Amino acid sequence: MQTFLKKQEIFLRKPLNLWSRLCLIAAAACIGASFLFPLWEIRLVAPQYRDGLELYIYAYQLQAGNDGQHLDEINLLNHYIGMQPIREADFVEMTWIPFAFGIFILLCLRAVVFGRMGNVVDLFVLFAYFGLFSMGNFYYRLYTYGQNLDPRAPMTIEPFTPVLFGTNRIANFTQYSYPDTGSYFLIAFGALLVVAAILSLREKPIDPYETR
To answer: pLDDT tens digits, residue range 55-92?
Structure first.
């Protein structure tokens, strides 16, 4: 156990070379770019909506197709089956996710300046936790929308859970739910952190008692 901990300490004390620091700068740019594009797209298609009803989820807002009209139509359909309306104000995570993105950018730049492997590991662990928590929260929100149906609704259907990733059939609608451009930038962010760590694996660990 002591040997294992010693190896981890040595690993975390490795310095980051120039290429690793450039990867971190690119990773910070990916986080910034993800803010500009939708993270997720949900699309509903039915015989009466052959072109589909589109809903785009950004880090800070909901945006519907046809200049927002699609959200009104989706909420009208939700009313008929007893599902609560989808309102941007209910998505409280949209108030803190932009701050989380900003923190990731700052931590990236901090890692570039301090240049230690430990900085990259800390950043990756925080990002992994953020990703798992966000996906879990997203799934729970979909679950509550589909399971808490009003029994007094004009149309009665069995409670359901909208699909998080993939395709699902809901009555005469086909639901499509997939990550969009913003999510791919976030995936690139995580990948660049891994690449940054790999590029500095052969660097000699910094002596903690070395004076600079």
So the answer is: 999 999 999 988 889 999 988 888 888 888 888 888 88
Q: Is residue 111 part of a domain?
A: yes
Q: What is the CA radius of gyration of the chain?
A: 22
CA distance 174 to 114: 50
CATH number of domain containing 84: 1.20.140
Distance of CA 81 to the CA centre of its chain: 29
Does the residue 45 lie in any domain? yes
What is the extent of the structural domain holding 162?
17-199
Residue 211 lies in a domain: no
**Are 117 and 14 a contacting pair, CB within 8 Å?**
yes
Q: What is the pLDDT of residue 1?
A: 58
Domain total of the chain: 1
- What tokens appear for 83 in the block? 């599902």
